[in-house]
Protein: Galactose-1-phosphate uridylyltransferase
Amino acid sequence: MPEPPPHLAPATPPTAPATPLGAGVVKRPTRLADGRDLIYFDDPDTTLGPDRALDTRSLDPRPATATMRQDILTGDWISVAAARQNRAFLPPAELDPLAPQTPTNPSEIPSHYDVAVFENRSPSFGPALSEATGDAPAASDPPRGLDDLAHLGLGRTRTSVGRCEVVCFSPERSGSFGTQTPTRARTVIEAWADRTAALSALPGVQQVFPFENRGEAIGVTLQHPHGQIYSYPYITPRTTRLLDAIDRTAPDLFARILAFEQAGPRVLLRGEHWTAFVPFAARWPLEVHLLPHRHVPDFAALDDAERDELAPIYLRLLRGIDALYGDPTPYIAAWHQAPVHVGRDTVRLNLQITSPRRAADNLKFLAGSEAAMGAWIGDVLPETAADRLRSAIEGVQL
Structure:
């Protein structure tokens, strides 16, 4: 990897000591000009030095934390984050806000990097009162716990306490997680584990969600290889339904699902620690789930062996999905983790990759039944999808 250009020569060491993580990854925290956290995660074979340049931009004040409104018909909380209207939309490559800064590109990351994580400038969920520092606005009316959020009432609002972070997989201007090397993928996994632990400890956070949106058909507004992490002040509707399903079936529901799928015709990959499969009741034309064999609630609970195997198996899945039609496939890669305070012994970390691509040139659009009623109609038999994906994955090289 090339050295930083001269104008980005290190100006100061990080504001906090470097911390060694698993697999030889090193964490180097610092801050952006407006006080937002920026954290570098260096590859074990990095060519970068230990210092990082200062962010010397003059930035506008951070926006006020968004407000949530309760939908009394469902109990769902809707965050209204008007500041997101100002975010970058498909900028030219020379103005990539996730690339290292240059004299002509005042991006979000002042130094060259391997993997970088920073607080979103226009977040859907913002800092709580007890963590507000510097230019960070304080939450004026945060939730008072899960019981408070469960109460139904007309016109109920709360401040959208939480945090949104951007995870840059590479300094390159194009690509995705699947285009990274196994070493870089392992660095990102270490970053996800570190951030899951840190965000779970923030006041008011109830659930932490790492994900990657890939492709304009999904709504991606930046071509730079990156993902995000949302930290919610509530348990999301999807996880609430999962907790109910566990209550109605058995505490070991995920172990039962894993055994059921491993014995069936939809397995795509099976390692020592992970199994990937097309689920029995897949909603999307392309849908893949990945489960660890051991019960773990989140990334932070994975051991080194599980993290080591995850990097290549995840890359094979993503590259197989692209190989299915010979070009990049739009998808959402969603890492479902257990809530921070409940369901830790029953909700297992799991990946769900979904894509609307149902043919080389056709997408599935959510129409009346799916979008309005939540009543899904599948377009592809899951067993057929599994056969096609297995064939595509067989040809993948790492």
Summary: DSSP finds seven helices and 17 strands in the chain. Residues 1-13, 129-134 have pLDDT under 50 and may be disordered. The radius of gyration is 21 Å.
